[in-house]
Design a protein that fits this description.
Length: 250
């Protein structure tokens, strides 16, 4: 069944949704749906509904009529926040897309010391809006009813504040410098934690000062193994490992 993201504020108590021109074009032009055809609507917060496309004189006046809500999916065994150092080019969009497909609950772009990308507040806000659209589309395609929260870029102050505000969330610092034989592996470090935060550095890794600051903030340095992965690979691999340990993948 085709799916459409409709934010909660667009859902109407009458059960009829007036589509935006963009949504109407997607249903009518891209999917070529006809009046009376069924579609699944999801609100990005976990709710799903059956809906039908009503007849309309013009595409831009298209309306969906909601029917009964669909069953909610099972509760996830682990809630993962992925803190990802800003990556250049289209790598951040790839990370957001794939992390959404894998099941990340929240994605926090990190302005780290060695990151090549630098964003001021205005550009950071516009980039975050773009990443949110990427996440919404990825959720639509992979069948998620919820969309991960995408923050505007934060510094270390913001990341460590997240951990202080959620004392039950285990903070794990992915650190290639900890890849020796005695290093704690990510899978073992995440076992038994229902809420996890994984911080992934840029291509050049975290600086010594950043590692020390993260550890002083309660984060545990962990390793994925002896190989050094690119930043866009490391975050997705780390997310996959944690989800596998908790039975969400594999």
């Amino acid at each position: 069944m085709h799916r459409l993201f409709v934010p909660p504020e667009q859902l109407h108590a009458s059960g009829r949704i007036r589509l935006t021109p963009e949504q109407a074009r997607h249903l009518g032009t891209v999917l070529r749906l006809k009046p009376g055809e069924e579609i699944e609507v999801f609100d990005g917060k976990g709710a799903r509904f059956r809906a039908w496309l009503e007849d309309a004189p013009e595409l831009d006046a298209a309306v969906l009529r909601l029917a009964e809500p669909l069953p909610e999916g099972p509760l996830r065994a682990v809630d993962v926040t992925l803190v990802q150092a800003l990556a250049k080019g289209e790598k951040m969009e790839l990370i957001v897309q794939k992390a959404t497909e894998l099941g990340a609950a929240r994605i926090v772009p990190l302005s780290s010391e060695r990151a090549v990308v630098r964003l001021d507040a205005e550009r950071g806000g516009s980039k975050a809006e773009r990443w949110r659209r990427v996440a919404q589309e990825a959720a639509r395609q992979c069948g998620r009813a919820d969309v991960p929260r995408i923050d505007e870029p934060l510094g270390w102050d913001g990341v460590l504040r997240l951990l202080r505000d959620e004392p039950g969330r285990r903070g794990l610092l992915l650190d290639p410098e900890a890849a020796g034989g005695a290093a704690l592996r990510l899978g073992a470090a995440s076992r038994g934690a229902r809420r996890v935060l994984i911080a992934v550095g840029p291509e050049g890794g975290f600086s010594a000062e950043e590692r020390a600051r993260a550890e002083s903030g309660g984060m545990i340095p962990v390793s994925l193994g002896p190989l050094v992965l690119r930043t866009e690979t490391a975050g997705l691999a780390a997310l996959s490992v944690v989800l596998h340990v908790h039975g969400e993948l594999g």
